[in-house]
Amino acid sequence: MGSAVHPCSVLLVVFLLGLHHSSGFWIVNVVFPPNAKSKAPSNSTPPLIIVPGNLGNRLEAKIDKPTLVHWMCYKKTEHWFPLWIDLNMFMPIGVDCWIDNIRLVYNKTTRRSSNSAGVQVRVPGFGQTYAIEFLDYNKLAGYFYTMVQHLVNVGYTRNETVRGAPYDWRLAPNENAEYLTMLKNLVEEMYEQYQHPVYLLGHSMGSHYVLYFLNHQPQAWKDKYIRGFISLGAPWGGAVKPLRVLASGENDGIPMISNIKIREEQRMAATNPWMLPFQEVWPKDHVFVSTPTFNYTNQDYQRFFRDINFEDGWYMWEDTKNLTGDLHPPGVELWCMYGVGLPTPITYIYDEEFPNVDPVDIVYADGDDTVGSFSMSLCKRWKEQQEQPVHVTEYRGLTHLDIVYHEKVLNQIQHILEGKSDIPQEIDVRPGAD
């Protein structure tokens, strides 16, 4: 299929609204995102580049396919069409077409990923904000819209002083060299234009992309061009959720797509193995996945991938485990912000039907409902490992996605950009908190 089974945005609205109370579909949680409140203009608008998280920007595709997974799928399109988000992915038949279009094919000999045969994929809007503000063309699935609008309200200008750096989030940085070159060029361009070093802001996995980028720049370059790095909800030590995603799939509350079906696509993204809990920081005896026959720790990834019948995942993990796994400090001033105080999975328990069934139980610990606070708080170690200041703010009661549009976070980001030095260590965002 191309851009839609039926080109009707009303269907998308009804569908998303129907899901609004589902359990954790992170895009639905920001359907009709909150508007930013009016603010007095600021005299300080240093240049800012936003790097989104996994699934956090639009992708487009053009196809001329040799074969089809279903006769109703489009075989060829003359124009680029939305791949993410695509209305087709919500349709019973459309999901097969979508998975075949968005999936990557991994070659364990060359250790490289490629698009499905006959599929071209591109990332629209590099250097602009539209592709990260809303993930769909109907402007319903909002992501960075509220944050960008807040910045505009205080004097920033879209695509000028605040810009987006979307990327192909299916790929880890080792396969995204062109993107990293583009990001470096964008930093230098904004520096020259505004005669001011640039702030980088990353959310979730986007913060790992920023860290990888900074780790590969000379310190002299960072001293000249980078004013600071703002990280939001970064899984510095990896995350536990990708283990469930890879084992049995996670539809994030989309009722017409089964976990097993969406697992086909989720296994094709190299970024899921990359974000598995890092061996260097997690206890070697912590059980992440428990089954009647075996308990899997971070020392058992090879067996884990073999037992879930996804051995390519082992090679993907081998390719990516050292990209940011040593947590080398960024070498720039850092503001590390994340949510705490919410139950977050740290162990998935399966019955004998593993891996082709949902977990029968989950063990929880503290976190932001997606990433554990143990992982996100690892930025604290950099206070002793780099000369540049490291500021840490924990937001009690704030979820992983809410951090990109909660008013208290937006105000804190504004204060950082304005150069204000008062950085609170904890902010309570629970209902009734001051």
From TrEMBL:
- Gene3D superfamilies the UniProt entry points to: alpha/beta hydrolase
Q: What are the record keywords, sorted?
A: Acyltransferase, Cholesterol metabolism, Disulfide bond, Glycoprotein, Lipid metabolism, Secreted, Signal, Steroid metabolism, Sterol metabolism, Transferase
Q: Which family does it belong to?
A: Belongs to the AB hydrolase superfamily. Lipase family.
Native species of this protein? Seriola lalandi dorsalis
Instruction: Give the UniProt subcellular location, in the record's own words.
Output: Secreted
User: What is the protein name stated in its UniProt record?
Assistant: Phosphatidylcholine-sterol acyltransferase
Origin, by domain of life? Eukaryota
Q: Name one Pfam family in it.
A: LCAT
Recorded coiled-coil stretches = none
An example GO biological process term is: cholesterol metabolic process
Q: What is its EC number?
A: 2.3.1.43
Give the chief site where it resides. secreted
What residue stretch is flagged as signal peptide? Answer: 1-24
Q: Which GO terms describe its molecular function?
A: phosphatidylcholine-sterol O-acyltransferase activity
